[in-house]
Input
Amino acid sequence: MPSLKDLKNRIASVKATQKITKAMKMVAAAKLRRAQEAAEAARPYSQRMAIVLANIAEAVGTDDSAPRLMTGNGRDQTHLLVVCTAERGLCGGFNSQIARFARDHVRKLLADGKTVKIICVGKKGFDILRREFSSLIIDRVDLREVKRIGFENADQIGKKVIGLFERGEFDVCTLFYSEFKSVISQVPTALQLIPAAAPAVAKTDEASAAAIYEYEPDAGEILSDLIPRNISVQVFRALLENVAGEMGAKMSAMDNATRNAGEMINKLTLSYNRQRQAQITKELIEIISGAEAL
Amino acid sequence: MADFNFELVSPERLLLSERVSEVVIPATEGEMTVMANHAPTMTTIKPGVVTVKAVDGKVTRYVVFGGFADILPTGCTLLAESAVPVSEMDAKLIEKRIDATKSELDDGSHSDEHKTRLEQFLAELTQLNGIVVAF
Output
C-alpha cells in the first residue's frame, strides 16, 4: 500500500505529464493547420503539371523518342524504395505503419528474387528498417533541421533519385509515404516514380486544344525537362502529405494521452482520499479508546 | 486593350492570378511577350525576369529560376520552379544557386549531356545576377 505522500507525488507527476501532452496536442493542431495550408497551396502546381504532362505525353506518343524516365529501361530487376517517414516519434502508429507497409513490400520483392535498395527519408523509418534491412539501405535524407519543408528539399531527393537512375543503379523506383485522408486516418501509400506513367487527366475544353499546340523547343525536349521536375513535385507532395499526416497522428495520440492521464488522476485522487479518510478514522479511534481507558 | 488571365505558380504556392494585358516571359529560345489571343504554345523557361503588366498599367517584375509556360488564347500559366518578386530579391539568393550549380559541376560524376545543361544554367544564372544587381 503506497503511503499518502507517495500518492500525492504520483498525482503531481501525472498532472505534469498531462500538461505536457496537452501542450503537445495544441502545438500539433497548430502545425497541422499550417501543414494543411501548405499542402493546399501546393495543389495548383501539381494539378497544372499533370495537365501539361498529359498533353505533351499525348503529343510525343509512346515511341522510342519518349524519355527513359518515362518508359523505364525495360528491366525490372533492381528496385529502389524511397521511404518517407517523420523525424520525430510520439505520433501513434504513424511511422510504424509506413515502415511496416514498406517492409512487407521489400519482403515480397526479395522473395521474388529482385534486388532491393532503400533510401530513407526521416529518422524514424531509418531506425525501424535498419533492424532488418541495414545492408539494403544505401542512403538516408535527414530533414530534422528543416523547419518548413520547401521545394528545394524535395528537389534534392528527386535529383538524387534521377542521378542514381542515370547511372543505372536501379530499374524501378517506388515512393512510400502516408496519404493524409483526415486527422484520424492516414493511409500508407506506394507511388511508382520511375518509370512514370503519364497521369490520366479528364479532358476539359481548354485541354483539348492540345492538338494545335506549338512547342518551343520541340515537345520531346520539353518532356525530358518536365519529367524530372514532375518527380520532384511528386516527392514534394508526398513530403507535405507526410507532415500533415504526422501532425494529425500526433494530435490524436496526444489527445488520447491527455484523456488517459485524466482518468489516471481521477483514480489516484480517489484512492488518495480513501486513504486519508482511513487515517483520520484510525486516529479518531485511537483518541476515543484512549479517553475510555481513563 | 484586350486582357487575359495570367497565373504564376510555384510548387509552394499560387503567387499571382489576375487579369493582365501583357506578360514578358524569358523563354529558353529568347524572350517573348504574351498578349491576349496568343497561339497555344508550350515553352520552357530559363532563369530570368518575368514582367507582368496588369490591366491598370501597373508593372510588376518577378525573378524566376526555370520552369515552363503554358500559353492559351484565353490565358497563360507559368509554372516556375521558384519565383520571387524583384523587390524581395536578394543577390545572395542567386549567388547561392550559382555556388550550388558550380559544386554540382565539379562533382564530375555526370553525363556529358547533363554537364552541358548545368553549364548553360550557370551562364544564365550569372547573366541574371547582372540584371538583378542593375535593378
